[in-house]
Amino acid sequence: MHLGPKNQNPEQLARDQIDAKLAEAGWCVQSKDKINFNAGQGIAVREYQTDIGPADYVLFVDHKAVGVIEAKSEDWGHKITTVEEQSGGYAAAKLKWVKNSEPLPFVYESTGVITRFTDGRDPKPRSREVFTFHRPETMAEWLSKPKSLRARLHDIPPLTPEGFRDCQIKAIENLEESFKADKPRALIQMATGAGKTFTAITSAYRLLKLVRASGVAVRPMR
Known about the structure:
This protein is an alpha/beta fold and 222 residues long. 30% of the residues lie in helices and 19% in strands. The chain contains 6 helices and 7 strands; from the N terminus they run αββββαβββαααα. The protein has a 7-stranded mixed beta sheet with strand order 1-2-3-4-5-6-7, with helices on both faces. A hairpin with a 2-residue loop joins β3 (53-61) and β4. It is elongated and about 65 Å long.
C-alpha cells in the first residue's frame, strides 16, 4: 500500500499511484500549466480543462487527444464502475486549447490499484478491468486501423466449408460467433481424432489474417 506524505488526502495518494503507473507504461505525466507535447509520444496532462470542468487526466498520442482517466481514491474499490458516466462525459466534452470534434475513444477509471478501460470504438462499448494503462505506441497502433478489434471481428467472412469435417466447421463458426458476441474466452471440446490441431490452426490463421488480431492464443488440449 502506498502511504505517501501524511498531508495528502486519499485521492491525492491515488493520483500518485496513477502517475507512477502511467510513467511505467511510457507516458510523460505533465501539469496543465507545463504542457510540452514534444516530450514524448504519449502525454498525460493532469487537470486538463474541458467545457464541463477539469478532467483528472487527458491522454495525448502524437499530439492528438485520445483518452481520459477519471481518478478516484482507493477506497472506491470495485464501485469505481459507478463513475463510468462521469468519465464518459469528460471523453465527450470539448477540450480547451485543442479541437476535438468527436468523443475521445479511450476511457479509464482508476484508483491506482483497480483500473478499468473502455474502447469507445467497439460495437457495444463496455468497461473491463486491466492490469495497467496501455502504452502510447499500443494506442497509436489501434488508431492506425479504421476499426477496433471487436468491430473487425464482426467483419470476418464466412468459413469456406470445403476440406473441413462437420465438427470442425461447427467449432470454428461457433468460436467466431462467440467473439462477435463479445465473449473473448471460449473452449472448444472435440473428440479424440476429430482434428483439434487443424481446427485450432485454422481459427488462429483466420484471426491473424482476416481480423489482424494480435496476441492470439489458441491451444489444442490433448
